[in-house]
Structure formats: structure tokens, C-alpha cells
Specification:
Layout lengths: L6 E5 L4 H12 L4 E6 L3 H13 L3 E6 L5 H8 L6 E4 L14 H22 L8 E7 L10 H20 L6 E7 L13 H11 L8 H11 L11 E4 L3 H4 L1
Helix pairs in contact: 1-2, 1-7, 3-4, 4-5
């Protein structure tokens, strides 16, 4: 698979899964790889240097992914061949311990931002381009303390279906990748992280946890010409975990 000369933007591209996705695009020949991040300048600069070493020209997009300022920066990137919404946040608490502020913050970053980024990028995207969102199993299953993030991911997958239909006449594909538990820094926000990891290792038919590279594989596939007839779908990458739980 080759993405020679492509221009891509990956939100949350300075760390974790997003950084692996950005790295994969660079290795496959992307000419420009823009990465979005919130405030960790050090991690972003390190990621940028790594991308430059892989032959891609990095662009740093700093700020709240749901803000109009970030949307304007994305529009200024010019025509994108791929837009990947990997950034995610949220309050990990039982439903009755959350507030409206928690709800609004989580929905804005995980779902509304996806729509605003698509509005910013799609008018300049050419036929054959792709938009991909990262979701999780909590969109359809009840996970402990995950009510707000799970709700936001369900909204995200709904947006994927609607945009998948609405942008098809432009030749733009829109899909999502939903993963099982991945051992990244994001798990530090879960009070039961160790339990989640142990349970996933034990119950995953594939015999191991999903890794960032597994998600990157799925994302670049959906951004390739081989995925031409995949539209508005959520591809589950969990090693079979969701089939036996």
C-alpha cells in the first residue's frame, strides 16, 4: 500500500494511537502529516521530528479540537487526502456523578469536533479522499464509568453513517475504526485500568491485546483505494473480544 505524496491530518497525533497513525502515514509516503494536539508542546515537537525523519513534512495544529480556531487551521492546510479524528477525552465517572459541563466537554471533543472538522476539510477534499473517526466498544456496550464517553462515541458513529452518505457524491469516504482495550496513556484515567487489561488479555480470542499498530493498519486501509466501496461503516478491531463478552 502506498500513500505517496498525500496530505493528511490526524487529531491527537502527538501521542498514543494517534501518533502511531501519523507515523504510519509517513512511512507509506505521505508528503505532509499535520498533527493536532491540545497543550503538550514537548510531545508534539518530538512527534514532528520523528515524522520529519520518516520523510514527511510535519505541521503542528495546537488547540482544542472542537474550537473554531482549530477548524480554521485545518481549512488552511489545503486539500487533504485523509482526515483522521483520533483525539478523545472525557470524564470517567458513574452517570449520577457527572455534570452537564462534563457531558458538554466530552461530546464536544469526541463527536461535535468530528463534524466541525469535516465541515472545514471536506469542501477542499478531492474524490478518493477519506475521513476516519476512532470509536470504541463503549458506543454499543455498557462499560464501567464510561457513560459519557460511550454516549459520545455512539454519536460519533452516527455522524459517520450520515457523513458517509452525504459525502459519497463528492467521492469522499467516511468510516470509523472501533477498538478493544489498548494499553496507552489514556488508560491512566480509568480507576479500574489494571482490571480492564487483565480481563481483555484473558477474554480476547486472538490471545493478546490490541496494539496501536493494529488500529493504524485499519485506518490506512480505510484511507486506501482498496476500501473504495466501504462507506459509513464502523470496523471493529478487537481481536474478537466483543464476540465472546
Amino acid at each position: 500500500m502506498s500513500l505517496d505524496g498525500s496530505s493528511v491530518f490526524v487529531t491527537g497525533g502527538s501521542r498514543g494511537i494517534g501518533r502511531e497513525i501519523a507515523r504510519r502515514f509517513a512511512r507509506l509516503g505521505a508528503k505532509q502529516v499535520a498533527i493536532g494536539y491540545l497543550r503538550n508542546d514537548r510531545a508534539a515537537k518530538e512527534a514532528a521530528e520523528e515524522l520529519r525523519g520518516l520523510g514527511a513534512e510535519p505541521v503542528l495544529v495546537r488547540g482544542n479540537v472542537s474550537s473554531t480556531r482549530v477548524a480554521a487551521q485545518v481549512a488552511a492546510l489545503g486539500p487533504l487526502d485523509a482526515l483522521v479524528h483520533s483525539a478523545a477525552t472525557g470524564v470517567i465517572r458513574p452517570a449520577l456523578e457527572t455534570t452537564d459541563k462534563h457531558f458538554d466537554w466530552t461530546l464536544a471533543a469526541n463527536a461535535r469536533a468530528f463534524l466541525s472538522l469535516a465541515r472545514a476539510a471536506a469542501p477542499q477534499m478531492q474524490p478518493g479522499s477519506s475521513i476516519v473517526a476512532l470509536s470504541s466498544l463503549g458506543s454499543t456496550r455498557v462499560l464501567e464509568n464510561y457513560v459519557l464517553v460511550g454516549t459520545s462515541k455512539a454519536a460519533l458513529e452516527t455522524l459517520v453513517r450520515y457523513l458517509g452518505v452525504e459525502l459519497s457524491p463528492r467521492g469522499i469516504r467516511v468510516n470509523a475504526v472501533s477498538s478493544g482495550v489498548v494499553d496507552t496513556e489514556a488508560l491512566e484515567h480509568f480507576p479500574n485500568a489494571e482490571q480492564m487489561l487483565a480481563w481483555s488479555r484473558e477474554r480476547t480470542p486472538a490471545g493478546r491485546l490490541v496494539e496501536p499498530s493494529d488500529i493504524a493498519d485499519a485506518v490506512v486501509f480505510l484511507c486506501s483505494a482498496e476500501a473504495e466501496m466501504i462507506r459509513g461503516q464502523t470496523l471493529i478491531v478487537d481481536g474478537g473480544f466483543s464476540l465472546v463478552v
